């Protein structure tokens, strides 16, 4: 190998290893049927607050505000997507219920979140899991398009238009590999 090509290859490998790919998240729109099912599974109640981490064009927060009348917050880092989401909220007539913030989704405060919507990768979901357990109240809902949470067993796993949708309930105590909630037929009867 020629010396200059070897140096170029070494430099390329060195630079690649320094890049943080943990936030290498690309925008892929969630189909409307998947959005609807995510929101249905979340069992949204009046007064709930929904956050969508990596909200893209805002379709999930907008649908939550439009269809359920709740306050929704979209977290996004792409300026173009933020502007598109704000425009979409204005066009849908829900800008008074929806807010879009430019923010690092791994630093977002989740303490007031009743429903968390995500369409990230498995690695990002696992990074968020400890934050969810630490900050969200037990009984809060988490819904995900396409990707699971490792050993956090979902309450519901469905397929909608050949895409997976997951739902979890934030537990009082998390035990990796066990369900967050006990299915009704396995609950201990109360005397």
Question: Which helices and strands, and how do they pair?
Answer:
Layout: H1 3-18, H2 32-41, E1 49-53, H3 59-68, E2 71-76, H4 79-92, E3 98-102, E4 115-118, H5 122-135, E5 141-145, E6 156-160, E7 163-169
Parallel strand pairs: 1-2, 1-4, 2-3, 4-5
Antiparallel strand pairs: 5-7, 6-7
Helix pairs in contact: 2-3
Describe this structure in words.
The protein has 191 residues and is α/β, with parallel strands linked by helices. The chain has one domain: Vaccinia Virus protein VP39 (Rossmann fold), CATH 3.40.50.150. Helix content is 34%, strand content 19%. The protein has a seven-stranded mixed beta sheet, with helices on one face. The longest helix has 16 residues, at 3-18.
Write down how many β-strands occur, each being a DSSP E stretch of 2 or more residues: 7
What letter string, H or E per element, gives the SSE order?
HHEHEHEEHEEE
Give the radius of gyration. 19 Å
Instruction: Give the helix level as a range of percent.
Output: 25-40%
**What is the residue-mean pLDDT, rounded to a whole number?**
86
Taken together, the total number of domains comes to 1
Q: Which superfamily, in CATH terms, is the homologous superfamily?
A: Vaccinia Virus protein VP39
Side-by-side strand order of the widest sheet: 3-2-1-4-5-7-6
Question: At the first level of CATH, what is the class?
Answer: Alpha Beta
**Structural class from helices and strands?**
alpha/beta
Give the overall form: globular
Helical run tally: 5
What name does the CATH topology carry?
Rossmann fold
Q: Which architecture would the CATH scheme give at its second level?
A: 3-Layer(aba) Sandwich
Poorly predicted segments: 3-23
Q: Describe the largest sheet.
A: 7 strands, mixed
Distance between the termini: 79 Å
